[in-house]
Amino acid sequence: MDTARAVRIGALAHRVGVATETLRYYERLGLIAPIARSAANYRLYGEVAERRLLFIRRAQALGFSLEDIGELLSLHHRAGARAAEARRITEARLREVEAKIRDLERMRRGLAEFTASCSGEGPAAECPILASLAAPEPK
Length: 139
Prior knowledge:
The chain has six helices and three strands. By secondary structure, it is mostly helical. Strands 1-3-2 form a three-stranded antiparallel beta sheet. α4 (66-77) packs antiparallel against α5. The longest helix has 35 residues, at 83-117.
């Protein structure tokens, strides 16, 4: 274990742009691990932890959950792991994103209709937007 270039948690957090509490949380989840402890009992992290953190940040930017990220990290480092499993996880995330896009499109259409229905003139009590929002649900 090469601790010559190891850094403490604060330095690693600064280097990758996350809070130290985030790193501690990732450590509790088993996503990263220190390579050693210093004489003063500080956690020391090496290049592997930094690469794993970059992997985590990239995966989070794509919307993967921490659970999925753990699985992807495991696949990345496990001998004999199959690409099909990474694809399965990614396809599931893609389906979730596509469902959110459909929901957002539905919301966009509704907001556009609301906006078109209201001139912005007159008292709020006569606003079609507010009237639509306050109307009882159809049975």
